[in-house]
What we know:
Layout: E1 5-10, E2 14-20, E3 25-31, E4 36-43, E5 48-55, E6 60-69, E7 73-80, E8 100-102, E9 127-128, H1 136-139, H2 152-172
Parallel strand pairs: 1-8
Antiparallel strand pairs: 1-2, 2-7, 3-4, 4-5, 6-7, 6-9
Amino acid sequence: xxxxxxxxxxxxxxxxxxxxxxxxxxxxxxxxxxxxxxxxxxxxxxxxxxxxxxxxxxxxxxxxxxxxxxxxxxxxxxxxxxxxxxxxxxxxxxxxxxxxxxxxxxxxxxxxxxxxxxxxxxxxxxxxxxxxxxxxxxxxxxxxxxxxxxxxxxxxxxxxxxxxxxxxxxxxx
Length: 173
């Protein structure tokens, strides 16, 4: 099986993990309190199997962690068991695997994190860990995130929004 690319960033209380796998099917993500993060799923026309097991730097709070399965990626907000900056994502010392990269878009340096460094998650719909696997999870995908929509949807929305705006604008003139 192949490894999907993983991007990560952290705050003092949480770690953001993004599994970059477009159009993933049967995505299963698991997280243990000891900080073992596992992913499996298939993607692509050939339905190639992707798997991943990361031993995170420290213990995590599974109940408070959450996940969003999107069209292009699986995004996880992993709550640390104890607040504090991790030296690295993985428990093992040395160079991380080539498929694990820093997510510079979400990165904040330790001295810049004032506790208000909440990420703008753009209205992503999250489910709890443990509720993964099964078709129900796929029905919960949030469709308000423009990035993850099919091409036809924004056109319909824009047309709807435009007509709403005209109605609202009419009384005020």
